[in-house]
């Protein structure tokens, strides 16, 4: 994943060191594996009536338990969400070391990683394909949650890396789909304590139990003190349960009595979260509404991926696009760069974009693998992105980013001028910051592939050449109006219409701005045609695709028109000269054809997308008249759900990095709409809230 491009640091740990870090002595015992398999199968079967089974696991270990959960669920007609909490960030190379003791694959390119007989001996041939699939998905060693979706949404794995207590406490209880079972791996038992168990209890339903291996009496008592029933995997075998029906197992293991006081403590923890983040409402679809379609206005990347994420949940959609085909707005560019946005502080913005970029990259890979079925290919090349400075100020900023954090090398690493030249295959003569997993993607093909896949999974009605001029809320739902037709009612409506996001009365006060962008298309010729990576400096330049490079882009706020602009064409060229002065390949950039594409991206001041309930701004200001500039008013806004339009949601403000942020934002909104756990922490969800600009002031007691 990293080393086929560069090896800036020695990330290959000795296998024995990994064994010390992730002890797996119990896992090598065939008896343990057999007991684990029986236990997991019974858990899955006992919950077979649930459409979504949410499981929690403390510790990743060597992956046996996670892969076994996956395999146990494979033949059942339900979806599985497995949330794995591991304190030590681990990347794919480390997983390969754990799963391949021979280490022969360490010298192979990422696309050729193989698991040898050592893995097969230890885990069995049935788990080998699952391990290969996870390795290909490329987990990264970053703090936070990484979501992996497999088998058309039937299997979802959330890998939470970082301090376990921090990770658990940063997520909110999901009443419709809480965690119904926990498995604790042996090597982490000594790190757990009552505060962690209480956070686990907060995220669980009231009948959730914990299982472990060789649990000490102290550990058992700590778990029970937090209201859990406790089982040991070693207590189970096929002889115990192979002849028992699911009901008897459920009665023995799940439907046990709870201490009322302990249950009350769980509810108190949930109420504390609800009060602390009461201002950020997350309305979802009730179970009775799950079969009705959700309306989406928009025809770009965000709309398509929302339809796909909902389709993976069995939720139908009806999409309305004003153009004759998808991706004619900001998603219509030939090539778009895909890479994370990093900050020196590695704050919520930086963490979100790392999570989102990796998620989007996996989406491209999955849709590309399914292209034979979709009949839709996605032009792309994960050739890396090389970021360089273009003046003294940008150099200081880039240096600060590089030096401020110990960035995982699969995310980014510094290169000197010689290495930058070697990566780019043309002379830059500048040091830079290289994103090895980045590259470029064709946005409109990406959107089309997502829609085609969604249509394979569930009912998706696509209304092209349908310009929605107005929306109105009635008692039975939302209606969408064109010149001569009225669609509806819809219980849920999502506005994901890009540059037209603020065209309706219910959305026209969103704090978001349109920026025109002109991307120049220049022929691939001579030295320029050798460019082998995306360059990002003052503007960007892509490797050639179908004989053309993309060069851009202009950035004009509140554009008066979308006509071709000769001056912006020359400005794009000037940015390259400023970024890489005196390089011979600059003379190969031929602008004479005036070939370009113009689009509008919607941009927020803080660079976060907007995702969530549509704010009722008029009511916010009306309530503000009664609650302003006092200590009591701050408390009021803290615990009171901010006014929103019932059943109306926003997905937009993707800016110039929609390829990186759009798919994950869509996945999170789909989870919110369906009442499922969202793979983002509480603070980040607040940063995505379309209400956030007003709420930040109100929560601080400032004037609007």
Automatic annotation (TrEMBL):
It holds the Pfam family DAO. It catalyses: 5-aminomethyl-2-thiouridine(34) in tRNA + S-adenosyl-L-methionine = 5-methylaminomethyl-2-thiouridine(34) in tRNA + S-adenosyl-L-homocysteine + H(+). The keyword Thylakoid does not apply. Residues 297-704 are annotated as: FAD-dependent cmnm(5)s(2)U34 oxidoreductase. Residues 1-253 are annotated as: tRNA (mnm(5)s(2)U34)-methyltransferase. It is found in: Cytoplasm. Keywords: Cytoplasm, FAD, Flavoprotein, Methyltransferase, Multifunctional enzyme, Oxidoreductase, S-adenosyl-L-methionine, Transferase, tRNA processing. Residues 294-671 form the FAD dependent oxidoreductase domain. Transmembrane segments: none annotated. Catalyzes the last two steps in the biosynthesis of 5-methylaminomethyl-2-thiouridine (mnm(5)s(2)U) at the wobble position (U34) in tRNA. Catalyzes the FAD-dependent demodification of cmnm(5)s(2)U34 to nm(5)s(2)U34, followed by the transfer of a methyl group from S-adenosyl-L-methionine to nm(5)s(2)U34, to form mnm(5)s(2)U34. In the C-terminal section; belongs to the DAO family. In the N-terminal section; belongs to the methyltransferase superfamily. tRNA (mnm(5)s(2)U34)-methyltransferase family. This is tRNA 5-methylaminomethyl-2-thiouridine biosynthesis bifunctional protein MnmC. It comes from Shewanella morhuae. The lineage of its organism: Bacteria, Pseudomonadati, Pseudomonadota, Gammaproteobacteria, Alteromonadales.
